[in-house]
Amino acid sequence: MHEEQPETGRYRVDPVPGVPRQRRRAAEAPEAPAGEGRRDSRRRAAAAAKRNRRRRVLKWTAGTGALVMAAGCGGAYYLYRHLNDNLTSVKVELGDEAERPKAAGEALNILVIGTDSREGLGREYGDEGSAGHADTTLLFHISKDRSNATVVSLPRDLMVPIPDCQSAQGKKIPGSPRDEFNISLGQSGRDAGCTWKTVEKNTGIRVDHFVQVNFQAVKTLSTAVGGVEVCAAKDINDSGSHLKMTKGRHVVQGEEALAFVRTRHAVGFGGDLSRIPLQQQFISSMIRKIKSDDTLTSPTKLFKLADAATKALTVDSGIGSVDKLKDLALDISKVDTKNITFATVPVLDDPENKDRVIFKQPDAGQLFAMVAGDRSLTETATPPAAGATDPAAPATPAAPAATTPAVDTKDVQLTVRNGSGKRGQSGPTVGKLQAKGFAKAAVGSDAPVTATTTVTYQAGQEAAANALAAALGLPGDAVRPAAKADPKADPKAGLLLVLGKDVLTAPAAPAAVPTEAPEDLQRVQADDTDACAK
């Protein structure tokens, strides 16, 4: 292959694959005249050495860059895995899709549940090991155009029907025709899915996802953002929450933040309704803090917040990943703080228990219809033309005929029996009727299967029966007096509603979405920095 050239000492190299290019070039270069060959050879050697050094520098730089990129990607991957592993997700069982409210379309309804569970917290908060309740519940509605949001607080002491539900483990849990809202979580094995169903049944609003937080979450999240500013209109010394706060503005975090949102005995009337405005004030302030520049532009604060949030949250499997939570957070972040309205659902004292409350109708139904119809409580959304209907809104009853006398429906005794032939119809109907003002509606035993729905009344109850028929959109001939031989004709039983097969096929007529909120609605804007605990 090689022929030695004695005059130069070089080798003539055949241009075969696998031989270095530098050797081929040296072998194939034309021979220089005597005297110049050595100088050219030295120049070529120097140039080759320079090229080699440059290549070594490029290789080193590329290697270093690749190492930095690998480290960066590895860090991002580690961060993603770390945050993802923090999350706890639960698959919820919501039952028959046909029995749920109509989907909200591009709008979003997020159920935020604050549990008072003491599991793993020792004796510090009392009731050690308690599975807890739905202690604080907010329905967070984000409009389809992301221009506004409405956050509705549901009192824990609200008396409502609790539907049958099923835990994530497949356990079937019977409901209750009338009980405190807060037992929809934690009691009898109920999980967040049961609270989810309870909210849908009682409000007519479709829930898309839930987020559950506990005591620890309030402490860690408030600390992660560097504290949350709150205001007290007077000195507060609450023996229940252990909050001691002087009149004025304070920045709270950790234990003090938790004490603030738990305080109720030393403010307002000393009950749960007095605590709700404090929680709304706290959450509004936290939203302002998170959206502020010093949080969003600080990688350290953002990591602390993301780490604390993912550790603190339990979510449904639909948003059980960092990517999906990020998308949800981006949707929420698009809403200007001034267009986020916190409101408490209108309620009245429960006539059967002064320490409990019931929906105030028609105000509560009016608020729920606005949320379901994606109608803003601020002035950002353009209301539809007069008479326009929204197919996403829940059906509302036609107004009673002018000849129907006014009836105080909250005192009407009403039993609902299911004669449709399909199980599970009485509970949802009771929920709808209670939302429409029939506070004492209750589920009765199943009735023989019948084709049509009827309302049976005792002597002196005709006006109430007509009001019930109007609320359900039933024809006039559905109302009839009770026969004396009817075993259900006990005057104490009140009205009897028997659901027939027609309830399974009757279409829900769309109704106009209310254009205004109920009068005297308790509300606060998220950008209101003057709100103070009273």
Task: Characterize the structure shown.
The chain is α/β, with parallel strands linked by helices and 534 residues long. Helices cover 32% and strands 20% of the residues. The chain has helices spanning 21-28, 36-86, 192-203, 215-224, 254-262, 272-291, 293-296, 299-312, 322-333, 363-372, 426-435, 462-472, and strands at residues 3-4, 11-12, 88-90, 108-115, 134-142, 149-154, 159-162, 165-166, 172-173, 176-180, 209-213, 228-232, 236-238, 243-245, 248-252, 314-316, 340-344, 347-350, 353-359, 414-418, 441-443, 454-457, 479-481, 495-499, 523-525.
Topology overview:
Layout: E1 3-4, E2 11-12, H1 21-28, H2 36-86, E3 88-90, E4 108-115, E5 134-142, E6 149-154, E7 159-162, E8 165-166, E9 172-173, E10 176-180, H3 192-203, E11 209-213, H4 215-224, E12 228-232, E13 236-238, E14 243-245, E15 248-252, H5 254-262, H6 272-291, H7 293-296, H8 299-312, E16 314-316, H9 322-333, E17 340-344, E18 347-350, E19 353-359, H10 363-372, E20 414-418, H11 426-435, E21 441-443, E22 454-457, H12 462-472, E23 479-481, E24 495-499, E25 523-525
Parallel strand pairs: 3-16, 4-11, 6-17, 20-21, 20-24, 22-23
Antiparallel strand pairs: 1-2, 4-5, 5-6, 7-10, 8-9, 11-16, 12-15, 13-14, 17-25, 18-19, 22-24
